[in-house]
């Protein structure tokens, strides 16, 4: 097991390195002189030169990269171009709304997705299976932001049950989490269904039925428990995508989270913030994938030796 | 004496077999019909109104017999704009997915066939591209190269490359082991010929399925980028851009939001269902 974890760890280090270099190069890849962009359009040549020195753009790339990474790990993320505040101060208050949104979405989609998948698998070929599967395929095909806008139109504008935008109270998160979780619910439902269908064919399920075990126990204790191994993998992988999906949902519902911050910063050309947010998004994704891999290895010893 | 009747054994042509199996998938057939219908819209553009004709007497009209899908903030006909938008949205998706598929397949075949350092290099690069979750890669690319429809196409093409590379690599790996490849090799067929004439056709089933599925993703991605303000300018009747404008009128003219979004949804659904159907008929082994 230790070896497996070590192997996975060694695997992701080069990837994180390359990703961080790409994100670091971001400000150099944008057409135009970064110092000019940071100093603003009206800056004089002298001001631009001062800015260049301040940003360390005269240093060799390797030194700049080293400073960038040291900054990333010590919390010194530079200064926001737009607000002139430290990037840390800009980003930290944005983490909470995004995290709440992601957690709510994952909770409801796990509960709804697994139940839908199990029901669908038990009632395979019946009307309810058909309805659930049509719903699941629709959930994967629907554009997130449109679903959000439609929910907002019906439940906020027409019925007035929830606030349209902002994060003033708990109820502000209801529609955004439903929106963000819809695709994942669909995905979980599909995976649970196919995994349950496979497991229900197994001999030990027939045995438990033959020995007179109640059907409820057969499904929940024997079948579902084994199919959860696959489902957990899907859930874990989707959690990484959730934060990316928050970009759209936060835009629709005007939630002041990380996703919205990323879009605003790109539109305002606030590249220091863009860099940091991109790095946060990618690193969390890579790390979550690693955790999922390791958990999967614990749950299913077979794959450790591949 | 009664004549002995011989049963007639016929080997079905691959195309026949395919159509027989495919026609059984009702949802896939309906989806295909819907996509053909969209193609007709794209080619003939049967718009009832001029898409840029401004009509200040009919601003934000609800759907009625004159304007089936209502009008927008300039009194322009929403139905006509959606029909024109079909052309933009579908061409963006087709161009982007095709570019991604071509580059991705070439890389995938090379990685799968040659293996070794080349394979590690290609596959690790894919891992790097995959570490940008979801749309973030496309957003990042657009942030660097700037907004606009062409740049959206570039971003979505790059976004699609690693998916195709992985799929084509894994099917190349399994084809490589087949006997006819060994036979071709032993009679001295050149690498190029082997790759394009013998291995590539074998990867086609997986390529067709992922191409179809990817079309849905590309349409949603393009619409999302337009919605976020990185794609088509709001002047263009792109579906995503229409939704972005419609958002400001959510209280007064919900039809401006409903119909363009519904078109995106139905089109993506059609591509996904068609992809599901194709997968079941072409390549039942695929996950």
Automatic annotation (TrEMBL), chain A:
Residues 95-292 form the ABC transmembrane type-1 domain. It is found in: Cell membrane. The keyword Ribosomal protein does not apply. It comes from the Bacteria. It is a multi-pass membrane protein. The chain crosses the membrane at residues 12-30, 99-119, 131-155, 170-191, 231-256, 276-299. Its main location: membrane. SUPFAM superfamilies: MetI-like. This is Glutathione transport system permease protein GsiC.
From TrEMBL, chain B:
PROSITE patterns: ABC_TM1. It comes from the Bacteria. It is a multi-pass membrane protein. InterPro entries: BP-dependent_transpt_permease, MetI-like, MetI-like_sf, OppC_N. Residues 86-275 form the ABC transmembrane type-1 domain. The chain crosses the membrane at residues 27-44, 90-115, 135-161, 215-232, 252-275. Pfam families: BPD_transp_1 (PF00528), OppC_N (PF12911). Keywords: Cell membrane, Membrane, Transmembrane, Transmembrane helix, Transport. The keyword Transmembrane applies. It is found in: Cell membrane. SUPFAM superfamilies: MetI-like. Its main location: membrane. Part of the ABC transporter complex GsiABCD involved in glutathione import. Probably responsible for the translocation of the substrate across the membrane. Belongs to the binding-protein-dependent transport system permease family. This is Glutathione transport system permease protein GsiD. It comes from Sedimentibacter acidaminivorans.
């Amino acid at each position: 097991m230790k070896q497996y974890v070590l192997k996975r760890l060694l695997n992701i280090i080069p990837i994180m390195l390359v990703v961080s270099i790409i994100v670091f190069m971001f400000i150099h890849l944008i057409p135009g002189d970064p110092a000019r962009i940071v100093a603003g359009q009206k800056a004089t040549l002298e001001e631009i030169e001062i800015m260049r020195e301040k940003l360390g753009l005269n240093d060799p790339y390797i030194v700049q990269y080293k400073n960038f990474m040291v900054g990333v790990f010590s919390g010194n993320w530079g200064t926001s171009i737009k607000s002139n505040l430290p990037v840390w101060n800009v980003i930290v208050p944005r983490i909470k709304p995004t995290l709440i949104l992601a957690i709510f979405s994952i909770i409801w989609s796990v509960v709804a997705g697994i139940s839908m998948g199990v029901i669908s698998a038990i009632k395979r070929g019946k009307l309810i299976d058909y309805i659930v599967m049509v719903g699941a395929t629709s959930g994967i095909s629907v554009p997130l932001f449109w679903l959000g806008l439609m929910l907002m139109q019906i439940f906020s504008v027409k019925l007035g049950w929830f606030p349209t935008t902002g994060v003033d109270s708990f109820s502000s998160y209801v529609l955004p989490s439903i929106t963000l979780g819809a695709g994942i619910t669909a995905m979980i439902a599909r995976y649970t269904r196919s995994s349950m269908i496979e497991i229900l064919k197994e001999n030990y399920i027939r045995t438990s039925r033959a020995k007179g075990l109640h059907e409820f126990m057969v499904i929940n204790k024997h079948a579902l428990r084994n199919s959860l191994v696959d489902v957990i993998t899907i859930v874990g992988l989707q959690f990484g995508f959730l934060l990316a999906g928050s970009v759209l949902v936060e835009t629709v519902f005007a939630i002041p989270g990380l996703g919205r911050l990323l879009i605003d910063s790109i539109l305002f050309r606030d590249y220091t913030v863009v860099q940091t947010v991109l790095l946060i998004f990618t690193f969390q994704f890579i790390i979550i994938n690693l955790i999922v891999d390791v958990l999967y290895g614990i749950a299913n010893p077979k794959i450790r030796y591949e | 004496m009664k004549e002995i009747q011989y049963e007639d054994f016929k080997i079905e042509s691959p195309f026949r077999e395919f159509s027989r199996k495919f026609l059984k998938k009702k949802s896939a057939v309906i989806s295909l019909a819907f996509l053909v219908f969209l193609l007709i819209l794209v080619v003939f553009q049967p718009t009832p109104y001029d898409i840029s004709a401004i009509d200040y007497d009919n601003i934000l009209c609800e759907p009625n017999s004159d304007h089936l899908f209502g009008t927008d903030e300039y009194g322009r006909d929403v139905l006509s704009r959606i029909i024109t938008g079909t052309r933009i949205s579908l061409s963006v998706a087709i161009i982007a997915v095709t570019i991604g598929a071509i580059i991705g397949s070439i890389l995938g075949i090379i990685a799968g066939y040659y293996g070794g350092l080349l394979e590690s290099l290609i596959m690790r690069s894919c891992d790097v591209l995959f570490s940008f979750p979801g749309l973030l890669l496309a957003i990042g690319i657009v942030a660097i190269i700037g907004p606009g429809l062409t740049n959206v196409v570039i971003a979505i093409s790059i976004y699609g490359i690693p998916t195709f590379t992985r799929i084509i690599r894994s099917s190349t790996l399994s084809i490589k082991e087949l006997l006819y490849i060994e036979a071709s090799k032993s009679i001295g067929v050149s690498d190029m010929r082997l790759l394009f004439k013998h291995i590539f056709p074998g990867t086609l089933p997986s390529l067709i399925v992922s191409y179809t599925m990817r079309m849905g993703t590309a349409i949603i991605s393009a619409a999302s980028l337009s919605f976020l303000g990185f794609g088509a300018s709001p002047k263009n009747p792109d579906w995503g851009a229409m939704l972005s404008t419609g958002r400001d009128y959510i209280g007064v003219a919900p039809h401006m939001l409903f119909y363009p979004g519904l078109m995106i949804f139905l089109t993506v659904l059609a591509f996904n269902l068609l992809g599901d159907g194709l997968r079941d008929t072409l390549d039942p082994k695929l996950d």
